Amino acid sequence: MKEKAVTLLNESKTARWIALALISTTMFFAYFFVDVVAPLQSMLETDYKWTPEVFGMLGGSEFFLNVFAFFLIFSGVILDKMGIRFTLITAGLTMVIGAGLKFYALTPGFADTGFAAWLGSFITWVPASAKLAFVGFAIFGIGVEMAGITVSKTIVKWFKGKEMALAMGLEMAVARLGVFAVFRLTPIFAENGGPSNSVLWGLVFLCIGFLLFLTYTFMDAKLDKQMGVSKLTTSPEDEFKLSDLKKIFTNPGFLAISALCVLFYSAIFPFQKFATDMLASKLNVDIKSAAAYVSFFPIGAMILTPFIGYFLDVRGKGATMMIYGAVLLTVSHLIFALVPAESFGVVTAILTIVILGTAFSLVPASMWPSLPKIVEDRYLGSAYGAIFWIQNIGLLAVPILIGWALTASNPGVSEQIAAGVEGVKYNYTVPELIFAGFGVLAFILGFVLKFVDKKNGYGLELPNKKK
Ligand SMILES: NCCCC[C@H](NC(=O)[C@@H](N)CCCCN)C(=O)O
């Protein structure tokens, strides 16, 4: 008797785009929560006595456990060992638990406890609410990064040989929309109940995101069933082994792309933290207007990334795109650093942000779909985990480096600002030159990547879509 051919679920365009919509919407909520209190710095200072230093430490706590306790490496191993469904659910739950703790830290219910009194009794310049919020945000950080690598592996599972870079580009675009949404919605939530109300909404969104991940797992189970994936059918050579970690860290393509990743993202995300103040100082405008200019940055990247992804799917040229991205990154930071304030107007500022936004599209759109070409599928999760870990080291360290460079290159300025002297501003030339330096190094690494690609035949310049 003739066996009936099964059409795999990922062969159906509708099914794979539904799968993408489910996981991307959760990433929208996840990125929303990452920045949920970002626009509330002054409110947190007034209501909770969080100084700017305390506020800055909160940003770092997102990466703390991932970097120092190697959670991102563990997350990658868990993904390869336990599979997509288990890891998505674990990531979703971890985000909810971490967010719940951060919300509890801001409630009067916590402030009245003996635990809060104990937490407030040491390192007294950091309030108890902030200490508990750090712990919550560090746990959330494990979840959000675990979700990030699992979503990448999921996209590869559904879209490899098809519209993989477009799908990754769309997922990143939806996530960036979350960052845009947070800057619009959080202040409104906070006006009606303070920062804890904003965090509560973020928590509610994450619960919805968890349900979406859960819904996706049914599609994943069906696809696995069709593909005949089970412990019994997976041959030992297809299974992830701990020794594969050594293969990842000795793979020249992986090393080149990770170095490029940490340099590139170190000149993007930490820059975002300082950009508003830098523009306010350079343009001599207030913080609100400067923030409005900076808001074009993720929006531009959001619009462009899927188009670049589409181009990569049909035309390829992934490694070349990363080099172009590094050039634009360097040029934009050099403009910020070297064009004197007298010649730096609003038009120059917006044009430079557009150049940087284009770099922010070119590199991510081509970098993340390149990894499956460099490493084997069975340890792809660990490779994503490892590259995120290396990147997180930069995201943790660079804001500290930039903060230090800013203070060192502007002697006496922070003291004058603290004393309330009017019109005193930081000069951002040195920090911007550091960012430009990262761009130059990323540019060199782009060529290294091109060289190792040619030598090892990864096919980084080839289209993702099979004809
Ligand atoms: N499927 C996700 C691809 C990675 C997207 C990338 N995100 C990261 O690299 C995160 N590890 C760091 C996000 C830090 C946000 N505060 C991106 O371009 O967003």
Automatic annotation (TrEMBL):
Subunit structure, interactors included: Homodimer. Interacts with lysosomal protein GLMP (via lumenal domain); the interaction starts while both proteins are still in the endoplasmic reticulum and is required for stabilization of MFSD1 in lysosomes but has no direct effect on its targeting to lysosomes or transporter activity.
Protein's name according to its UniProt entry: Lysosomal dipeptide transporter MFSD1
Keywords linked to the UniProt accession: Lysosome, Membrane, Transmembrane, Transmembrane helix, Transport
Location in the cell: Lysosome membrane
Organism: Lentimicrobium saccharophilum
Residues covered by the Major facilitator superfamily (MFS) profile domain: 19-454
Protein topology in the membrane: Multi-pass membrane protein
Recorded GO CC terms: lysosomal membrane
Catalytic activities: L-alpha-aminoacyl-L-lysine(out) = L-alpha-aminoacyl-L-lysine(in); L-aspartyl-L-lysine(out) = L-aspartyl-L-lysine(in); L-alpha-aminoacyl-L-arginine(out) = L-alpha-aminoacyl-L-arginine(in); L-lysyl-L-alpha-amino acid(out) = L-lysyl-L-alpha-amino acid(in)
InterPro entries, A to Z: MFS, MFS_dom, MFS_trans_sf, MFSD1
One Pfam family it belongs to: MFS_1
Transmembrane segments: 14-34, 54-79, 86-105, 117-144, 165-186, 198-218, 253-271, 291-312, 319-338, 344-365, 386-406, 433-452
Summary of the function given for this chain in its UniProt record: Lysosomal dipeptide uniporter that selectively exports lysine, arginine or histidine-containing dipeptides with a net positive charge from the lysosome lumen into the cytosol. Could play a role in a specific type of protein O-glycosylation indirectly regulating macrophages migration and tissue invasion. Also essential for liver homeostasis.
Similarity-based family: Belongs to the major facilitator superfamily.
Any GO molecular function: transmembrane transporter activity
